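Practice problem: Phosphoribosylamine--glycine ligase
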Amino acid sequence: MNILLLGSGGREHAFAYKIANSPKCNQLFVAPGNAGTASIATNVSLGITDFPALKSFVLDNAIDMVVVGPEEPLVKGVADYFADQEETKNLPVVGPKQLGATLEGSKDFSKQFMQRNNVPTAASETFTKESIEEGLQFIKSQKLPIVLKADGLAAGKGVLICESLEDAENSFKEMLLESKFGAASDKVVIEEFLTGIELSVFVATDGKSYKILPEAKDYKRIGEKDTGLNTGGMGAVSPVPFADASFMQKVEEKVVKPTIEGLEKEKIDYKGFIFIGLMNTNGEPYVIEYNVRMGDPETQAVLPRIKSDFVDLLYAIGSGKLADYSLELETFTATTVVMVAGGYPGAYPKGDVISGLGDSNGSSITFHAGTTQNEQGKVVTNGGRVLGVTGKGGSVEEALSNAYTRVNEITWKDVYYRKDIGQDILNYGK
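Answer key — structure tokens:
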């Protein structure tokens, strides 16, 4: 197959890595890609929301399947666009149509979907500028801490956990009256705070059948011991020890099945991945949020653990034949450490030369995220999250050791990474 993959981050390099290693892939194109995808596929400089240009490329290059990495093109309707065009209406697109993508595009929409379909989640109410006074009254009635969520897409940064009433009231007003997160905070969801331990569960679905992929835990804060500002994610571990068989059975029965049945019942055409952000609260799963694509950096720990052919999986999703696909998993543990530019998640420089990339041995994989090549052909930094190094091993300890050994071989000016990824898992239950 000739395959077009949309996106440029670590998630997309992980996808490209799995696709390129499949005998079912003839040519792989990545739009726009990064320095890592350039080494295993053909990067093409296309805008991922320039749908007419994408269609022309698909037709000119005899593309057999389109795989959508990030959420933005999905929320803007890329799957609908291809389905509505006569020449591409039968093209398998891995990624939900626009209505399904609203599960991530609107927190309010997703909360209402969960409530209608009896998916366990935190209690919440949604407010707008017009109902700001009611919102402030509602805040006063909540227990601390209070969770505020921008309704729309805010690049993973639209969630605030407020430890005081004053902070919650001020942040709520900033979000609605001062557009703290732009148009994303035209609506704000106020939610009860759930205590417990978080994990991410990934589901592949063609809208009728589903396969549960390996779960993962990610690390959102910039600082060690989960301190400091939220980021897009500083690391990940898969599998997760506290997600044992009995807990995952509850996840399937109480969360995954009602979600898939809800999509079918509400006639939401969904062929793609659902990333379910969960809280394990006293052994019970509660949904924090849905995302309509794979997570980043979790993908970099999850995909290496898929043993069965990945292109077959993607095609089964896109063509509605997932029931026939047999998912096989590797037994090893994978841990990902994200290396970022100094200053991230605030302002950071670009264009710093990365040294030490070279070939790694089979115990780790280096996934590129914010990288490009300069005029001299050297790989340089081009984003906040620059690389994700995934270590493999028979245990969390071994996988972490292999990841950090590789991390220590790679450097650039002011590189930063957390040194405590996975430590909470090593100490779990002790």
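Discussion: The chain has 14 helices and 22 strands. Students who identified this feature from the tokens alone can consider the problem solved.
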